[in-house]
Write a structure and sequence with these properties.
Chain A is an alpha/beta fold. Chain A is built from 10 helices and 10 strands. Chain A starts with a helix and ends with a helix. In chain B, the strands form 3 sheets. Chain B has a 3-stranded antiparallel β-sheet. In chain B, strands 3-4 form a two-stranded antiparallel sheet. The chains are: A alpha/beta, B mainly alpha, C mainly alpha. Chains in contact: A-B, A-C, B-C. The interface between B and C is large, with 54 and 59 residues.
Chain lengths: 263, 404, 426
């Protein structure tokens, strides 16, 4: 890997962080059966902030962001998204889900629908927008991710990178204020990783609030305002990317960084 | 091959098997010769055997008088009708049993299959007991068991007799379950009932129009109309209103006890009920497994992606899971319909006169035309099966998920 | 921007989950009463189970086992089961009309059947595969009896034929097909002219024989097993050939195989059994008249071969194309690559499907009762025809159903286990 050389010529994206709180998580705990996956998570994300979450596999990073839009249920503590607390109340869950977009490792596009239909489905059936308007938004978003020409193809006919960009466009069509990215490049070939990361950088520059679970350290350096390192269900260390990479404090962070950076 | 770059080679007989240019053809020629030889051997044997028995091959028997009665029939038939008529009565009986059986099996199967996936432990377990119970016991045993249940454990018609009868009818004296069959009220189409039908079809048309309109509105503005309740109202209200306005033109002809048996109404024989019900129960267990597997085949990621877009569970089911699951479910579902149809040939175990009972049973025995009857019988089942498999192929071609 | 630096100084140990998540209470809450709808379902189900069992359990539990007839049962207590019929007739349900002093033969056959399956199912015992090979002959001899040598001679002939092939192909003739043909002719010659004589000779020198039992005496579960097992075993090689033929790129061969498979799958088994009972003799040279059980087994074999072919075709389709290409690039010919590379993998994937085919076939063996053979379902009517047991239904049906259920359910659990194992293996 050549993270060093990549970041030098790319330069840092500008900081869009504001003072407004987008997500507030306090003392959040989660168990899978008797297994304690998330332990006392405290995290505050500001509007416009970009956070990269990293850590060894099984450390709970994916579970953490899946809790934010209730794909997983937490059992203790509170999660407040845009002032709405995530409870068992369906109304709150609906509200939060329509404000939070999520992109998955395996794209999870709907194989029976065309690219365009994938993008218009939720606006039409959840937001109740007209088909014309939904199509217009969808085409706009597909252009943003630079694949408008694939609009009438089925997901199965696209490459992995293209599929992942469609998945991003699909989330953007709901006009989310927060985007969650769950290892979105892990299932892609190297040459496709760049096209997806470029799309994400573009989003970052527009001031989107983002939480990314990723191992792309070059991306983290360039885009993140904050890097969080998780292990065994706990937030072990967090810092600005430049300090996090140059001067890790915790032993576990050091070990992890040496494993993924130093070959 | 003169212009090819292969070196010219003199033809040898060995090349017929060793050269890729000839091998395929020569293998096929050998197969063909063997196939034709075996075929002629069988035909020759058959002709010789028939000659020894003094028989010929002729389908004329179809047009002579059958001379036997069929107690359950959908078309007019007497013992003066021809054997062909008897076969047709049998075919219709087979199709009736298959049709009704498939509908019941589908309803039960879908219901059980979905409940089998319930998060409720006890419901899921009950449904797996249902599935495993029905599909691991031979269907023939189920047929005779249901038949025994219907004939041995239901009251005789005479038990309904007297001031203080041992047995009573169900649903306000309208349904009688006896050991001679089940009696339902039959509708009597009085004067003006045609208007009722017209109104009903108009209502259906109105519902369809409403559906189209709501789709149009949805496309134009994105708003969902509450079509469900309006549709129900549209379907029920006009028909009920006209029914009373016309002075109740359709009446029910209730079965009643006369002598030692029930008269009037619709009489479903136990043989039909037992066969249809047993086949439906047996097949529903397989359908339930197909439904369950179809829903499970849709990855969890699909549900999660839809949920993260803010969709509610019922929308996820309708828009994401069902369209995909149906592609997995429908082909094996249809082939289970075929199995049910084929299994209906077990009708003989309970004395239901299906096509095997008429054409392949009494006709065969009376005329001694084993070969011809069996050929016709197999021809019937084969054409049903080919029809059904072409439906499956058509479905698969039309609804395949597009991939590179 | 505020300082975001944070380093954890104190480890949080894993804590037990809140009480509502675990333990009996947690389990009950999550699985039975998670919402009002769920609670309703739970209560309805419990009520349903109660209704089903409230009458059944006292009926079955208090059942009579020692009476002489149904009359006697009813006189004692008409509200409980009369299992005496099972006590009186269980031997018939298992063995049909097989002579009582020979019951050891089907029993031994069954025990040996289990032994002969072991080398096929568990690769650890594959070195005992020879037993699986000789088992079919042994089973036929045990069940039908007669001279041991008339069965053994078939094996001797086959061994001689295979031996002839190897000698010819290694020493005398280079072309495989020619030596195959020669060995085939030799085997034919052996069976045509020598085998009868040799069998009689051996029987005189070393007489080993069992009393002959005719087919119509066989019945009950023995008959179901005979028909089911021999059908599935004999259909296996035919099924493989049909599956390969269906995949073949030679149009004629493909056509014949597809035609056969679709024909068999398109007609009900009962019509095929009918063919066995009334028509099969028409197709064979005049004067041929052989055993009804054998005729049924032939039709059942053809029937299950078509289903087997489809299962194996599924297994073949499950293999990546690369396997064909890899074996071809190693220089293996068609049959070599099928035997060494393709089939071992395809069959492994197909085992669950094969087991399911067997379950279906085993259940379908009850259909022979319609052509008046005495399988368990047919025997139920035979037993009822006896004045002593006239009118007895449920005790018999429950017993027969339970036996089928145990066998079929056991096998289906096994095939599901295999399916799961295959999934994790790959």
């Amino acid at each position: 890997m050549s993270e060093e050389s990549d970041t030098k010529d790319l330069g840092k994206t500008k900081d869009t962080t504001t003072d407004e709180v987008a997500i507030h998580i306090s003392n959040m705990n989660k168990w899978f059966g008797t297994f304690h996956v998330l332990r006392d998570i405290n995290l505050e994300v500001k509007r416009g902030e970009r956070i990269v979450v990293c850590g060894p596999s099984g450390s709970g990073k994916s579970t953490l962001i899946r809790c934010i839009n209730r794909l997983e249920e937490h059992q203790k503590g509170s999660i407040i998204v845009d002032g709405t607390e995530l409870t068992t109340d369906l109304k709150n869950i609906d509200k939060i889900r329509s404000e939070v977009g999520m992109v998955f490792q395996h794209f999870n596009l709907f194989p029976h629908l065309t690219t365009l239909e994938n993008c218009t489905l939720a606006p039409i059936w959840v937001r109740e927008t007209s088909e014309k308007e939904a199509r217009a938004i969808a085409m706009e978003m597909l252009e943003k991710v630079k694949i408008p020409e694939q609009a009438h193809k089925y997901p199965g006919q696209l490459s992995g990178g293209q599929q992942q960009r469609v998945a991003i466009a699909r989330s953007l069509c709901m006009k989310p204020r927060i985007m969650l990215f769950d290892e979105v490049t892990s299932a892609l070939d190297p040459e496709m990783i760049k096209e997806v990361l470029d799309t994400m950088i573009q989003l970052a520059e527009e001031g989107m609030t983002m939480i990314c679970v990723t191992h792309e350290m070059g991306f983290a350096r360039q885009v993140a305002n904050r890097v969080i390192f998780m292990d065994e269900g706990q937030i072990v260390e967090q810092n600005k990317p430049e300090k996090f990479f140059s001067n890790p404090k915790s032993d576990r962070t050091k070990l992890f960084l040496s494993q993924i950076l130093g070959h | 091959m003169s212009s090819s770059s292969f070196p010219e080679e003199k033809f040898r007989w060995g090349m017929l098997l060793s050269d890729t240019r000839y091998r395929g053809t020569s293998l096929q020629v050998i197969t063909f010769i063997v196939f034709v030889a075996v075929f002629f051997w069988l035909v020759d044997n058959t002709l010789k055997n028939l000659a020894l028995l003094g028989k010929d091959v002729s389908f004329d028997f179809l047009w002579i008088r059958a001379g036997y009665d069929i107690n359950q029939r959908l078309i007019p038939y007497t013992n003066d009708s021809t054997h062909a008529m008897a076969a047709l009565v049998g075919i219709l009986n087979t199709l009736l049993c298959a049709f009704v059986g498939c509908i019941i099996a589908t309803i039960l199967g879908v219901f059980v299959g979905i409940l089998r996936l319930s998060k409720n432990w006890i419901v899921a377990k009950l449904m797996s007991v249902y599935i495993e119970g029905f599909r691991n016991v031979p269907v023939l045993l189920w047929i005779v068991m249901v038949f025994a249940l219907l004939t041995e454990f239901t009251p005789a018609p005479k038990a309904f007799k007297g001031a203080n009868p041992e047995a009573s009818m169900f649903l306000f004296d309208s349904i009688a379950i006896t050991n001679r069959g089940t009696y339902f009220p039959a509708p009597v189409w009085g004067e003006g009932s045609i208007w009722l039908l017209i109104v009903f079809f108009l209502s259906v048309f109105a519902v369809l129009t409403l559906k189209r309109h709501s789709t149009k509105v949805k496309r134009a503005t994105g708003k969902d109309l509450p079509t469900f309740w309006i549709s129900i109202l549209l379907l029920v209200a006009p028909v009920v209103a006209v029914y009373f306005f016309l002075g109740k033109p359709i009446t029910l002809n209730y079965p009643f006890l006369k002598g030692f048996n029930f008269k009037e109404g619709i009489h479903l024989r136990n043989s039909f009920i037992a066969l249809t019900l047993a086949l439906a129960l047996y097949t529903s267990a397989f359908i339930a497994e197909i439904v369950r597997a179809g829903i499970l085949a849709i990855s969890k990621g699909q549900t999660e992606a839809a949920a993260s877009l803010g969709m509610r569970p019922n929308k996820i089911m309708n828009l994401i899971i069902l369209p995909q699951a149906l592609r997995v479910i429908v082909p094996p579902l249809i082939s289970n319909y075929l199995n049910l149809t084929k299994n209906s040939s077990l009708a003989i175990a309970v004395g239901y006169m299906d096509v095997r009972g008429t054409l392949g049973g009494i006709t065969l025995n009376q005329t001694g035309r084993e070969l011809e009857s069996m050929l016709l019988l197999m021809g019937f089942y084969l054409s049903v099966s080919l029809l059904i498999s072409s439906v499956i192929n058509f479905y698969n071609r039309s609804f395949q998920i597009v991939v590179r | 921007m505020a300082n975001v630096e944070y380093v954890r100084d104190k480890e949080i140990p894993p804590a037990p989950p809140p009480l509502i998540e675990v333990g009996v209470i947690g389990w009950v809450r999550q699985n039975l009463f998670s919402s009002w709808f769920n609670s309703l379902l739970t209560i309805l189900s419990l009520y349903f189970i109660f209704v089903c069992l409230v009458d059944f359990i006292p009926w079955a539990w208090g059942g009579h086992w020692n009476t002489k007839s149904l009359r006697e049962c009813l006189d004692l207590d008409p509200n409980v089961a009369c299992f005496s019929v099972l006590a009186a007739r269980w031997e018939q349900l298992l063995f049909g009309l097989y002579p009582a002093e020979e019951y050891w033969r089907p029993t031994l056959t069954f025990v040996l059947l289990i032994l002969s399956i072991i080398p096929i199912l568990f690769s650890r015992y594959f070195r005992y595969f020879w037993f699986s090979v000789i088992y079919p002959g042994l089973a036929i001899w045990l069940l039908w009896g007669g001279s041991f040598w008339s069965i053994a001679i078939v094996y001797i002939g086959l061994i001689l034929g295979v031996g002839a092939y190897f000698i010819l192909s290694s020493k005398l003739i280079k072309t495989t097909s020619v030596s195959l043909l020669a060995a085939f002719i030799f085997t034919l010659f052996f069976f045509g002219f020598l085998s009868d004589f040799l069998a009689r000779f051996l029987a005189n020198v070393l007489p080993i024989s069992l009393p002959f039992i005719e087919s119509l005496k066989m019945g009950g579960f023995t008959l179901s097993l005979i028909v089911g097992v021999s059908g599935i075993v004999a259909s296996f090689p035919i099924g493989i050939l049909l599956a390969l033929g269906r995949q073949s790129n030679l149009p004629l061969i493909k056509m014949i195989c597809v035609g056969f498979i679709e024909f068999i799958r398109g007609v009900p088994l009962i019509t095929l059994l009918f063919v066995a009972s009334v028509l099969l003799n028409y197709f064979l040279p005049p004067g041929t008249n052989f055993d009804i059980v054998l005729r049924v087994v032939i039709m059942v074999t053809l029937f299950s071969a078509a289903y087997m072919a489809e299962v194996i075709r599924g297994g073949l389709a499950g293999l990546p194309l690369g396997q064909h290409e890899a074996s071809a690039s190693l220089g293996l010919n068609y049959w070599q690559s099928q035997r060494l590379i393709i089939m071992p993998q395809a069959l492994k994937i197909s085992i669950p499907g094969i087991v399911n085919t067997f379950i279906g076939l085993f259940k379908d063996t009850t259909l022979v009762s319609i052509i008046s053979l005495r399988d368990p379902v047919g025997l139920a009517s035979t037993i009822r025809a006896d004045a002593k047991w006239n009118g007895i239904y449920w005790e018999l049906y429950i017993a027969i159903g339970l036996m089928f259920f145990i066998v079929c359910f056991g096998m289906s659990q096994y095939s599901q286990y295999l399916e799961r194992k295959l999934k994790t293996d790959n």
